[in-house]
Amino acid sequence: MERLLERKLIYGRLMEISEPHLIERYNRAMTAFGLPPTKLEAFDIDMTGFSPQIALELDDRDYLDPNRINRRFIILSPFQESLPVVHTSFSNTASLMHQFFQANRRAVHAVTIRDALYGEIEEHVSQVQEIEDLLSINEVTFHVRAADGTLAKSEELRELADRLLTSPNAWRNDAMIERMVELVRHTGDIRQNDLVPDKLVFRQDAYWTSHFGGLFVFADDRDLTVICDPAAPGFRRSRPWQVSYLPLEDHESIFRFLDQSGRIETADAGWLKTSGFLDHRIEMALWALVNRTQPDIDFSGVDGQWLHNWGLRHADLVAQDSELSFLRDVSRRLDNGGDVHINDMPASLRFLLVRADPSHPDRWLTNQLISLMAPSDFVSRFIFDKPGFYDLYEDYSDGFRAHVVATLTRTYLQDKRAFRQRLYGLDED
């Protein structure tokens, strides 16, 4: 992982926490969670407050994600909203956190001036034992606390202020007035700074979760579609009148679902060729063939020309590779003015020619599923499915790991937004 860390391909864009008062606030939240305070003098955090250094210190990557459900968070600064989520069991954790930040911007800014916000994204399920436990989660509730009691004190102050305004003789209560003065010193003027978050309940729609080896849930009105390993407990047992269950290996059914629900962009000569998407898939498939057949070669200094020459020298291997033969045949057909008749193609290869409809709300999740179906494309896997990418990376030879890091640095990291827009039609982060 050292190469990934050096190029910030893992744990990149995190916020450094080194100021003693912020570390003290973080530790108060840790203590409230029943966790030991960190002894580190500096560490990095993501949007949720997760720190890879503290995870290493505790030897527990899930210290903010116990049972991989009801995710904990620690907010030290409103600037955390711009950070990624680098460790999560649910793909929509970042989306839910963004919604919380946006709905409660004033409260987050006000409280973090002098305190830390912490709490849980509660999903009313304490453990996930079967698929139905996941499907029963329709919405989540943010249970929020402040590390040194700012929220509780502001609520108390508001109650006392209301009593002062409504009770005729309340102003004669010296003890109450003194308590209000004491609270104001801590909270400030709550009429100007709304310290209590406004919105705490948010819907949970489509998502991926790491449970049961990886499971996708797509929502269409009241109907749900679950895509996962059929060995997952509860597969096809829960609510068959409302939930469709698709095995991960059933490429035909998965493609049909994505196509009929409008989640994928129809393959055509327009975007396949002009975007460079098809050429990119061919290059990725060729690199995958090199790694499978000659994993121990020296990948240092290799480039597109080297790859082209290797393909010519090993034309027999290229011809025997079903993925490469398929992609090159499609490319030749399009160059000669032909069309793409994707429904006539093998179901296992169709995902090489599609991307999520850029206008669909589930575009990122759909691209994650497509990247899973096209494992040779490590660039797409890195963009849309980082947990899956890191698993693949561990199985690569050391030389190919260096090549993968160099490729991602040379292509995607040069201009992430432009790269995503060109290949996938996505114009947002």
List keywords for this structure.
alpha+beta, 20 helices, four-stranded antiparallel beta sheet, 3 domains, four-stranded mixed beta sheet, 429 residues
Question: In total, how many beta strands?
Answer: 12
Strand order of the largest sheet: 3-4-5-6
Number of domains: 3
Unreliable stretches: none
Largest sheet: 4 strands, antiparallel
Task: Estimate the global geometry from the Cα principal axes.
Answer: elongated
Count of helices? 20
Gyration radius over CA: 26 Å
Tell me roughly what share of residues is in helical segments. Answer: 40-55%
Report the average pLDDT across residues. 91
SS-based class: alpha+beta
Q: What distance lies between the first and last C-alpha atoms, to the nearest angstrom?
A: 25 Å
How large a portion of the residues is in β-strands, by DSSP E? 5-15%
Task: Summarize this structure briefly.
By secondary structure, the protein is an alpha+beta fold. 46% of the residues lie in helices and 12% in strands. It starts with a helix and ends in a 5-residue tail after the last helix.
Write the layout of secondary structure elements.
Elements: H1 2-6, E1 15-17, H2 20-32, E2 43-45, H3 52-58, E3 72-75, H4 93-103, H5 105-112, E4 117-122, H6 131-135, E5 139-146, H7 150-166, H8 174-187, E6 201-203, E7 207-209, E8 215-220, E9 223-228, E10 243-247, H9 251-260, E11 264-265, H10 269-274, H11 277-293, H12 304-313, H13 315-320, H14 322-335, H15 347-350, E12 355-356, H16 363-373, H17 378-384, H18 386-395, H19 398-410, H20 416-424
Parallel strand pairs: 9-10
Antiparallel strand pairs: 1-2, 3-4, 4-5, 5-6, 7-8, 8-9, 11-12
Helix pairs in contact: 7-8, 11-12, 11-14, 16-17, 17-18
